[in-house]
Structures are given as structure tokens and as C-alpha cells.
Amino acid sequence: MTIAFNRNSMKERRQILRRKTTKPEIILWSKIRRKQIDGFRFRRQYSVNEYILDFYCPELKVGIEIDGENHERIELKEYDSEREEVIKLFGISILRFTNKEVIDHIDNVLEKIRDTVKSRSSAVATTFPLIKGKTQKGLVKVIQ
Fold first, then answer.
1. Quick one: pLDDT at residue 76?
2. DSSP label at residue 39
3. In terms of CB atoms within 10 Å, which of 14, 36, 46, 95 comes out highest?
4. Domain with 95 in it: what CATH number?
């Protein structure tokens, strides 16, 4: 089986991106790290197949991308669209925000992330029933 998540071959690229963190990424990371969003853990620069997401919550399969001004160019929009289609094949939902949104309207960005996390977490709770005696944070214990 081929590993699709955080491949060793992508490790150096992920490390470079972490070292070159942009201001909007720093702002958003300070608000979502350490389980600040409803107790769910997000990771920085997480690779899926040959692509790297800015932020990713593996438990809920939610990715977050912050797009700079250069993403307005037609060729980058096409690349982003193709990239998103591949990532969606893994069941991952992608949220996209612009640098400006993160810098100027961080509360709105966080609200959209929380809304997505809530809807994805309730979907996970109903889609994947728990085994008798097992519990997860935020999910109801199933007893049969």
C-alpha cells in the first residue's frame, strides 16, 4: 500500500514551508494550535499525496489553505482546482481563505472553521459508530 499522508520524501519540503511561514499563517496558527478549535488538533504543513496543506485536522479530514495574492492568477487557480480535486479523493474538505481575510477578519475565519469542524465532527459521530466500551472526546458512548 502506498502511503499518501506525510510521506518521508516530502519531509524536507514541509520543513522548508514551516521555516518560511507567512504572517497570515502565523496569525491563524496561533488561533488553531493546541486544540483551540473545539478540542481538535490541527497540524501545519501536512502532505497529502504530492500536495502540502497549510493546516490539516486528521481526525475530521479538514484542510485549511491560505492563499496569497498570486493565487489570483489564472494558471494558479487552475492548479489549485486540480490540487483540490485530488485532495478531495481522500475525503478531505478544504477551507480556503485569503491573506487579507486572515489578517483583517480573523474572527470571521475562525467562525467558518468552527462551523466546518462542528458539521464534520457530527458527521464523523453518525458515520462511524463506536465499538462497545470505547469513547472519543465529544462523542456519545455506544452500548449494545
1. 82
2. T
3. 46
4. 3.40.960.10
Q: How many domains does the chain have?
A: 1
* 113 close to 37: Cβ distance less than 8 angstroms: yes
Would residue 140 count as lying in a domain? no
CA distance 58 to 43: 8
| Measured CA distances, 116 to 69, 94, 121 (Å) | 24, 10, 8
Do 86 and 80 meet the contact criterion of CB atoms below 8 Å apart? Answer: no
Indicate the SS3 state at residue 19: helix
Chain segment 114-142, per-residue pLDDT in tens: 999 999 998 876 655 555 444 444 444 44
Confidence category of residue 31, pLDDT binned at 50, 70, 90: very high
Predicted TM-score (pTM) of this structure: 0.82
- The answer to whether 66 and 54 are in contact (CB under 8 A) is yes
